[in-house]
Predict the 3D structure of the following.
Amino acid sequence: MSEKLKWGILGCASIAKRAVIPGIQASERNEVAAIASRDAEKASRTAEELDIPVAYSSYEELLADDSIDVVYIPLPNHLHREWTIRAAQAGKHILCEKPLALTAAEAEEMVAACADAGVQLSEAFMYRWHPRYDVIKEIIASGEIGELRGIRSAFTFNNSEDMSNVRYKREWGGGSVYDVGCYPISAARLITGQEPEAVTVQALFSERHGDVDMMASGLVEFSDSVSLTFDCGMWAAFRNPLEVLGTKGIIEVPSAYVTGSPGSGSFFVQSGGERREVVVADMNVYAAQADALAQAISGEAPLRYTPQDAVRNMAVIDACLASARERRRVELGTSPSRL
């Protein structure tokens, strides 16, 4: 590919400004050519701050720009379906922020629309592009920690005083399972290479925060009696660890989903009475995410994580939310590895 792909950004969300746009700009195969907001002043201000050539005052204007190859959608969750489908119909490839949709059924619609339009669709789970997850899977496969017995993970932060936050609008797809619980679920599926059989989740629903789940704790059951135990929250101290437990050892990842600071890509292995650090070079996972999509668009390599993977992750999220609301164990249909 001689020319870089031109990206358009639908919205001025914090994650876009803070991480994804700089990541695309730092990538090898992409450039950010335009940004759109329904607030013209916000679009212009953000374009100036981030050195983006064109600012549009509507999403429709950006999608009508024939020079744009790819769009990134960081809009609130309830808008993912509409604007992914509209982008696909405009012939744009799409990177959509996680979670892909509000339900697995919505995600299926989005995948079908992109397939019909012949465009690529990728879910923005940036953490998966860090090479340490390949290393972790290699360690498990080597037998160093023995047979897999369980996975434990958490992703919590405290933003509870920001009462206008979109995360606290239930009808917009607010809540901690959608926002951060999706990470441990995705990671467990990635590590095991399996789809869950059942989930049980208990949650704190807060009337102060639009009746969304401000904290949730769950058990996700895989085959061979392996399970993920996780908690997620938006009203708790910050942390994002991951632990993989085996019969002979443990893999510990202190910062499983947030990287970028010096040393944050490294993790630890306890086995044979010793604890060693596995040093993995720091990298910009947002740039890697963009370059991987560019490779798929150019036909050089298929997407490593297919859109159907996002549908399957949404099915687990559906089950978790149903379990939390209804206070019961929810079974899922079993399926083989999705990778």
Notes: The chain has a mean pLDDT of 96. The chain is about 35% helix and 25% strand. The chain has two domains: 5-127, 129-287+314-331. The first helix runs from residue 14 to 26.
